[in-house]
Design goal:
The complex is a heterodimer of chains A (about 110) and B (about 120). With about 110 residues, chain A is mainly β. Chain A contains no helices and 11 strands. In chain B, strands 2, 4, 5, 6, 9, 10 and 11 form a 7-stranded mixed β-sheet that branches. With about 120 residues, chain B is mostly beta strands. In chain B, a hairpin with a 5-residue loop joins strand 7 and strand 8. Classes of the chains: A mainly beta (about 110), B mainly beta (about 120).
Chain lengths: ~110, ~120
């Protein structure tokens, strides 16, 4: 079965600092999705990556998928308190199932 | 346009009872999937439905069942509730399942507490 491992599990950064969250798959990824979740709420779609080497940006968040399509990173530049939350990577497998990583909890200190 | 809507938002049940959770997808989306999220973990896949048929099932016991209606809304049923079923239950819709450029869009979830 597909497994997604995220690191770090939690992160506390000072406002204005950059940070990176990693997502590693046990199998080749055919599509990798990044979501953000505020505590106890639904997930907000951030970005989707499909091609090896692909990179996408939205505001101060950049996501990349490596050439082998087994690892993705999410980079936040000049973090703000509004970036705080739980970041989750997710992917489809070959059997109509969707898997998530365990999440990275981000706190941004003003 | 309305997003994915789930009801109820909160629910308290007793062990052994049965519960039904409801989900309405984004208009035009034909696929609905359900997830269980316990505190501190990522969402766990329960079911995926597409065009009213079950297309995928996660590692959950038979106490969990679901269905999708002709208007593409969906219900998740859990029988014989256990304390361990306490979680946030999330519903997501997408235009079509599988490896296509079709992200999941989530509702705000139903918080189920079993006492």
């Amino acid at each position: 079965s597909q497994e997604l491992e995220q690191s770090p599990q939690s992160l506390i950064v000072q406002e204005g600092k950059n940070l990176t969250i990693n997502c590693t798959s046990s199998k080749t990824l055919y599509g990798l999705y990044w979501y953000k979740q505020k505590y106890g709420e639904g997930l907000i779609f951030l970005m989707m990556l499909q091609k090896g080497g692909e990179e996408k940006s939205h505001e101060k968040i950049t996501a990349k998928l490596d050439e082998k399509k087994q690892q993705s990173s999410l980079h936040i530049t000049a973090s703000q308190p509004s970036h705080a939350g739980i970041y989750l990577c997710g992917a489809d497998d070959n059997f109509n199932k969707f898997y998530f990583g365990s999440g990275t909890k981000l706190n941004v200190k003003p | 346009d309305a997003g994915v809507t789930q009801s109820p938002t909160h629910l308290i049940k007793t062990r052994g009872q049965q519960v039904t959770l409801r989900c309405s997808p984004i208009s035009g989306h034909k696929s609905v999937s359900w997830y269980q999220q316990v505190l501190g973990q990522g969402p766990q896949f329960i079911f995926q439905y597409y065009e009213k048929e079950e297309r995928g099932r996660g590692n959950f016991p038979d106490r969990f069942s679901a269905r999708q209606f002709p208007n593409y809304s969906s219900e998740l049923n859990v029988n014989a509730l256990l304390l361990g079923d306490s979680a946030l239950y999330l519903c997501a819709s997408r235009a079509a399942p599988g490896r296509v450029n079709s992200p999941l869009h989530f509702g705000n979830g139903t918080r189920l507490t079993v006492t």
